[in-house]
Write a structure and sequence with these properties.
291 residues, mainly alpha, Lysozyme, two-stranded antiparallel ribbon, 12 helices, elongated
C-alpha cells in the first residue's frame, strides 16, 4: 500500500531532528528499499523493509527512553523512529572510526542498512528522487520545534574535555566581538556541526575544508590559507568571525536562536544544503542553550 509521501517525509524530518541525523538520508533509504510503500517483501516489512528480528533486537535505546514494541513495526511513523536510531548508531560508529569525519550517504548505507540495493536502483538516485520533498518537510518540522524561552549561559558540560576546550575558545572569541549569548550558542552549534569541534579535521576530497568551522580553501573563507594555518583554532575562529562581521553583522544581537542559526548557516557558512544544515545545528544549539 502506498504511503502519503509528504506526510512520510515530515515523519522522517521529525525523527531526524530528534536523533540528530540527516532527514534526507532517511527518506532516500525508504525510497530505495520500498518506493515508500507500506507493504512487505520477503521478511522485510514496511517502508524501510525492516526484519522483525532486527526490530525486536535493535529497537530499544535507554538514553532516549525508547523501547519499540513488536507490533509497532507495521506503523510507518514508528519505522522512521527505528531508522533514525539505526542511522544515529551508524553515524556514531563512523565518527569514531574516522576520528571525527562525518560520513557520506553511501558510507552510512554501508553500515546501516548494509544490504544490496534492489536491482536497477541506487541510493544516489533515491536521494535525487526525494529532493523535492525534503526541504518543505524539514522547514515544517523546524517550525514545529518548541524551543521554549531560550535564555541563560552556554551549557557545554555534555561535551568531551577536548571539545570543551574548543567550545570555550569559540564562545570567548565571539563574546569579545560583541556577540550576545544566543549568537554565541549559534556560532558554537555551527562549529559542532561542521567539525564536531575537532580543529584538525580536514574534509574528504575533492573539497578541501579545514578546521573548526571547515574553512574552504577553494574560493571560501579559507582561500589562500595553508592547511596548517587553518588547523590553528585561533586562526580558524578569527577568519569566520571576520566573515560574520562582513556578511551578517546583525547576527551579534540575535534575539531568536533559530533565526541566529539560520543566519549563520546561510550568510556565513553558505553550504550546499542549508535547510538540512540548519536542522542539524539547531539540534546542537538547543543543547548549548537550554530553556
Amino acid at each position: 500500500m502506498s504511503i502519503n509521501r509528504e506526510d512520510f517525509a515530515r515523519d522522517c524530518a521529525d525523527q531526524a531532528f530528534r536523533f540528530g541525523v540527516n532527514a534526507h538520508y532517511l527518506l532516500a533509504v525508504a525510497e530505495l528499499r520500498s518506493g515508500i510503500n507500506d507493504d512487505s517483501e520477503g521478511d522485510g516489512i514496511g517502508p524501510f523493509r525492516i526484519k522483525q528480528t532486527d526490530w525486536d533486537s535493535l529497537g530499544a535505546e535507554p538514553k532516549f527512553e525508547l523501547t519499540l514494541q513488536p507490533a509497532q513495526i507495521k506503523r510507518p511513523g514508528m519505522q522512521c523512529v527505528f531508522a533514525a536510531l539505526q542511522t544515529l548508531r551508524a553515524q556514531e560508529k563512523f565518527l569514531k572510526q574516522s576520528r571525527g569525519r562525518f560520513p557520506s550517504a553511501d558510507e552510512l548505507f554501508a553500515i546501516w542498512p548494509n544490504e544490496p540495493p534492489p536491482a536497477g536502483k541506487s541510493l544516489q538516485r533515491a536521494l535525487s528522487d526525494t529532493a523535492s520533498l525534503i526541504e518543505t518537510a524539514e522547514k515544517e518540522a523546524l517550525d514545529g520545534l518548541d524551543l521554549g524561552n531560550l535564555v541563560g549561559p552556554i551549557k557545554i558540560d555534555w561535551l568531551k574535555p577536548a571539545q570543551q576546550t574548543m567550545a570555550v575558545k569559540i564562545v570567548d572569541a565571539f563574546k569579545a566581538k560583541g556577540c550576545n549569548v544566543i549568537a554565541q550558542a549559534a556560532a558554537l552549534a555551527n562549529a559542532m556541526g561542521e567539525s564536531s569541534l575537532n580543529p584538525s579535521l580536514v574534509s574528504r576530497p575533492p573539497e578541501h575544508s579545514v578546521g573548526l568551522f571547515q574553512c574552504n580553501t577553494d574560493g571560501g573563507v579559507g582561500a589562500g590559507k595553508s592547511e596548517a594555518f587553518l588547523k590553528d583554532p585561533d586562526n580558524n575562529i578569527a577568519l569566520i568571525i571576520a566573515e560574520m562581521e562582513r556578511r551578517a553583522p546583525a547576527f551579534k544581537t540575535s534575539s531568536d536562536l533559530r533565526k541566529a542559526v539560520t543566519l549563520f548557516v546561510t550568510e556565513v557558512e553558505r553550504p550546499k544544503n542549508p535547510t538540512a544544515d540548519v536542522a542539524i545545528r539547531m539540534k546542537f544549539a538547543v543543547k548549548f542553550l537550554p530553556a
